[in-house]
Design a protein that fits this description.
about 300 residues, alpha+beta, seven-stranded antiparallel sheet, about 25% strand, globular, disordered N terminus
Length: about 300
């Protein structure tokens, strides 16, 4: 029965009229744009009144039609899923925290697609390939999970690419829950960090972050924006940050050297492993979460 409810929500039964493709705001609908705390890692530290207000905003958003852009819909679901993860993980429960957990589960179900249109397949996504140029090859990591993946609650899978011995890139693709609560690695890109070394020292760094409005207005192949300065790594939507910069650090000053002070292969890419061989294990927690979200209060 829960899957029937899940599928009806995904299909948009009884939904409001769809918003224009590029109306104002991030998501093109005031109900979604009102979710100002969506990617605040400290959401659950707000006072009780603010948490209750956010739970009501989530409930209101669940009564609206999802974004018409598939990549925007997947991105929004991924962000709301992160809210559910944070609420569920809090050790001290309260009525307002529980309300956020239930309301975010409802909205995750509302945003679920019956079918994932852009499943992962081997080979660099076009957006990443365009940003990197020619000569890059993806390699699988020897690590069961990467620090960046854990920072996102495994809602993003990170990939390693290399060109020669001195250039490497780390990019993520979003995980989406379908209408049956099953997780899928998609080809929708979430982050991109590019590093170039010379004689073992970092010489150049480029960072791209997901532009949520662009996912709706310009599509999956134009959904990233290059940054001139970084406030934190990884990008917006993570539960925690590996590095935090206040004030934002210009990329020209090579703030990435805080973690990458030499050319050691921290993510342990291997030419011997099949690309994607980690995914089955990485998605195991998401499978359990998909069931829990489907079973949350209607």
């Amino acid at each position: 029965m829960r899957w029937i409810v899940f599928a009806l929500l995904a299909a948009g039964c009884g939904s409001a009229p769809e918003a224009p493709a590029c109306a104002g705001g991030t998501w093109g609908d005031p109900a979604f744009d009102a979710l100002d705390a969506l990617n605040d890692p400290d959401l659950l530290e707000r006072d009780d009144a603010a948490r209750r207000r956010f739970a009501r905003q989530l409930d209101e958003a669940a009564r609206h039609a999802p974004p018409t852009s598939t990549v925007a819909r997947v991105t929004l679901q991924n962000d709301v899923w992160g809210v559910w993860q944070r609420a569920r993980a809090e050790p001290a429960s309260s009525p307002s925290q529980h309300a956020i957990e239930v309301a975010s589960a409802r909205l995750v179900r509302r945003l679920a697609l019956a079918r994932i249109d852009a499943p992962w397949r081997e080979g660099l996504p076009e957006l990443v390939s365009t940003a990197l140029g020619r000569g890059w090859r993806e390699q699988e990591s020897e690590l069961p999970s990467l620090q960046h993946e854990r920072a996102f609650g495994l809602r993003r899978v990170f990939h390693v690419a290399r060109r020669g011995d001195d250039e490497r890139a780390l990019f993520s693709t979003l995980v989406a829950l379908d209408a049956r609560g099953r997780p899928h690695v998609t080809r929708y890109v979430g982050d991109l960090e590019v590093l170039r070394f010379e004689r073992g020292e970092l010489r150049e760094a480029r960072v791209y972050e997901l532009d949520r409005r662009a996912t709706r207005c310009e599509g999956a192949e134009h959904a990233m924006r290059p940054l001139d300065a970084v406030s934190h790594v990884p990008g917006t939507g993570a539960h925690r940050f590996v590095a935090d910069f206040d004030p934002p650090a210009p990329l020209a000053s090579l703030p990435c050297a805080r973690c990458h002070d030499d050319d050691s292969m921290m993510s342990l890419p291997s030419a011997e492993l099949g690309v994607g061989s980690r995914f089955e294990a990485l998605l195991a927690p998401a499978r359990e979460e998909g069931v829990a979200i489907a079973d949350a209060d209607p």
